[in-house]
Design goal:
Elements (H helix, E strand, L loop, with lengths): L7 H14 L2 E7 L6 E11 L2 E7 L3 H8 L2 E8 L12 E11 L3 H14 L17 E15 L7 E6 L6 E2 L2
Length: about 170
């Protein structure tokens, strides 16, 4: 059976859709103490292929991303019936650079896309005062990724690279 790979534009849209649909991903940062990676589940708010991460300044990952901006995250979709419906599994594994968001307009953007993506925020005051010294947003600009889409074929994967601004995929 011949596998027909989707075009790059379709893969980009599928990743954008996955990032907008899934609320939680696993984030890996690098420890400054021993160099080992640290992983934590995070709410990931997507603006296209750019993601925003909200954290507290007292969190380990906050200090780690300030010291070393190289991060990795994974977001996955497993159908409701579980792996028995494995032909619907999708995931993206991204390597990127995390930057502290300090521009007030971009903080507003991060709050807006978070509120749009996470319905539970409608009843929360979590982002009412993000400009306090206790909270922060980081933007992750993707550099490269591995896209897995079992709808194409079980275990089908595609290595990807992003444009320098991280807003699109490129085949260069």
């Amino acid at each position: 059976m011949r596998i027909v790979e989707p075009p790059l534009q379709q893969i980009e849209q599928d990743i954008v859709d996955l990032l907008a649909y899934k609320e939680v991903g696993a984030l890996a940062t690098l420890s400054d103490v021993d160099g080992w990676p640290s992983a934590s589940d995070m709410h990931i708010a997507a603006d296209g292929l750019i993601v925003y991460l909200h954290t507290f300044t007292s969190a380990r990952k906050y200090e780690q991303m300030l010291r070393d901006p190289r991060v990795s995250y994974v977001v996955s979709h497993l159908p409701d019936a579980g792996y028995v419906e494995r032909d619907g599994v999708q995931s993206v594994q991204v390597k990127g650079h995390a930057s502290l968001v300090d521009d007030p307009e971009e903080v507003e953007l991060a709050v807006r896309v978070s509120r749009e993506q996470f319905p539970w925020l409608a009843d929360s005051r979590l982002y009412d005062h993000v400009d306090t010294p206790k909270r922060a947003f980081f933007r992750v600009r993707p550099i490269e990724a591995l896209w897995s889409d079992h709808r194409v074929h079980v275990m089908w994967r595609k290595p990807l690279t992003f444009t320098p601004d991280g807003r699109h995929l490129t085949d260069e």
